[in-house]
Amino acid sequence: MEVLSGKNILLGITAGIAAYKTSFLVRLFIKAGANVKVVMTPQAKEFVTPLTLSTLSKNPVISSFTEEEGEVWNNHVDLGLWADIMLIAPATANTLSKMANGQCDNFLLATYLSAKCPVYFAPAMDLDMYQHPSTKESLKKLQEFGNHIIPAESGELASGLSGKGRMAEPETIVKAISNSVKKNLPLYNKKFLITAGPTYEAIDPVRFIGNHSSGKMGFALAEEAAKLGATVFLISGPTALTAKSSSVKQINVTSTAEMLQATESYFDEVDVAIAAAAVSDYRPVKAADQKIKKSEKTLSLELEKTEDILLAMGKRKKKQLLVGFALETENEVENATAKLDKKNLDFIVLNSLRDKGAGFKEDTNKIKIISKTNSLDFALKPKQEVAKDIILQVIERLS
What we know:
By secondary structure, the chain is an alpha/beta fold. The chain has helices spanning 22-31, 50-57, 76-82, 93-101, 107-114, 127-131, 133-144, 170-183, 216-227, 256-266, 309-316, 332-342, 383-398; strands at residues 8-13, 35-40, 61-62, 85-91, 119-123, 148-149, 153-156, 162-166, 191-196, 201-202, 208-209, 231-236, 248-252, 272-275, 282-284, 303-305, 321-328, 347-352, 364-365, 368-370, 375-377, 381-382. It has an eight-stranded mixed β-sheet, with helices on both faces. Strands 3-2-1-4-5-6 form a six-stranded parallel β-sheet, sandwiched between helices. Strands 7-8 form a two-stranded antiparallel sheet. The radius of gyration is 28 Å and the shape is elongated. The model has no long low-confidence stretch (mean pLDDT 93).
């Protein structure tokens, strides 16, 4: 549910028995990383207490235009503008009718009429009420207004009857809103392949040739792409990091050969590939089966080139947008531009070890994005912000 992270969700609660489920609903939104505020009709407080909801949401619950003694006015307009998403659950037949006909006799309805964000509603009532022509007309009108219905479910009702009219379960509501939000994200239905971290090439069972890459840049790219709706295959060399998003499938590898094999497994099905890994350029021709003892003053190793993963993807590229990285210490632009052409890239991200705060293990990076038509310079930023800059360039080219 990472698509709800950071979203402002306004939950409107009306006077139905299903209001008891809203405490679970608030907890799920908070768990998903959302900010939650609650508005109740006065009668809704008979079914669930404001104290419970304010404790769970960490915000005061509002049910009227003024606080006690009328000394403080609650601004329904500001609240409607604050919300990224408004959800009315449960939405009783009475409230649905008022929403559909523009009636405004309580704070919740005034806030609804002021909301500029997407509005979702989850009906809850007895089965005959749900099937009544007036309710059907309300539901039709609200959807014509652009509001989103989360349909009632079938089951045992408070009346003792069984049928359609139960409010959808909190998990179903959160999933429905998440899926709806995700469909409007710029990378919805796009698949990414991202490589991250170092590769290690064994010298013996104990030692290896590697580099200082932490994988932070690749993981930041994966999380940013997922946040914007993509499904991500993250192929990671040895790092201490773990992908947080459920939309990121992390595939752990060790050597360059293993990373190449993993990229070949996923490359044909993705729309975008970003090679952010710091791949070892050489490996021992033959790795020792046993630990090499420290007996001589010197040790000579015969090395051979490893597979060029980015070049292999460039040769295999068909519909994919392909992005490479270049970490340089001299002749930065010339070296990066040469890779751009040789490896059939759409653009390349250049960073230099000569820039303070950029490169391996840092939490920040300073990049230049080079394409065949132009180049863009970016200031030193946290890697999460750098990831946003890179993914934005991807989105512009996909569109």
